[in-house]
Every structure is written in structure tokens, then in C-alpha cells.
Amino acid sequence: MNKSNDILLHYLTRITVFFVFIFSIYLFFAGHNQPGGGFIGGLMTACTFLLLFLNFDREKIKKALPFAFTSFIAIGLLLALGTGAWSMLFNGEPFLTHYFDYFELPFLGETELTSALPFDLGIYLIVVGIAVTITLAIAEDDQ
Predict the structure, then answer these.
(1) What single DSSP character describes residue 94?
(2) For the whole model, what pTM was predicted?
(3) 3, 57 in Cβ contact below 8 A?
(4) Predicted confidence (pLDDT) per residue in 68-83, tens digit
(5) Which residues make Cβ contacts (< 8 Å) with residue 45, sequence separation at least 6?
(6) What is the pLDDT of residues 80-133, one digit of tens each?
(7) Which of 113, 131, 22, 29 lies closest to 76, judged by CA?
(8) Considering only CA atoms, which of 118, 99, 139, 33 is closest in space to residue 126?
């Protein structure tokens, strides 16, 4: 196996991954009031992992990011379903009823917090877990 030693490609990948990840976090938080949210934020984050896996060896990435991406799927499902069931179980309202309120937070001032945020986080984790698991399964088949 011939290992590439392309320093410029590795350097640019690190910079690109940083900016794409920051943009995915922005899309995640903008999602409940604007286009975006857990799904597109999760896809963008999965793209950052894909870039890393394409440019560095799998062992180096697994050492730097020791996550079991399949557990992201289970945690995300529990979080999304739990957020949806919360309104039904504790407030007697329909499944996935949306709640919001304004809170005074340190350094942020008056901030709107919504029940859509933990639901979006669940979707985010599901999408990242599935996309990276599929990518790794395809990569392992090639070897």
C-alpha cells in the first residue's frame, strides 16, 4: 500500500473541515426558525468526517475520534422520540408539540429556548451516525 505524503492536501483538509464543521453547527442552531436544522447540519458534519477519512488513514482518524458512530444512532433516536413523547406524557398534548420560552442567560442575554432544539439534536446524531457508518462500511468493503 502506497501512503501519500501530500502535506498541502492534509493542511487544506484540516482548514476546510474546521470551516465546514462550524457552518454545520450554524445550520443546526438556525434550524428551528430558518432553513436548516438537525438533518442538514448532520449531513454537513458527516461530510467533515468523510473529508477526514478520505485524506488520512482510518487508524489515525479512529485514534483521534474514538467514537462508536452506531451509538450515535441509538442516542439520537432516544433523544428525538423522548422529546416528542414529553409533551404527550407530561402535558397531555399531541406528540411533538413544540414549546418555547425566553430565558435570561449569562453572556447571551435574553435567549429563546425551544423544545425543537433537543429534537433537532436527536436528528443530527441519527444522520451523522448513519452517514458515517455507511461510509465506513463501504470503505471496509474496498479493502
Answers:
(1) -
(2) 0.83
(3) yes
(4) 899 999 999 999 999 9
(5) 21, 24, 124, 127, 128
(6) 999 989 888 888 888 888 888 888 888 878 888 788 888 899 999 999 999 999
(7) 131
(8) 118
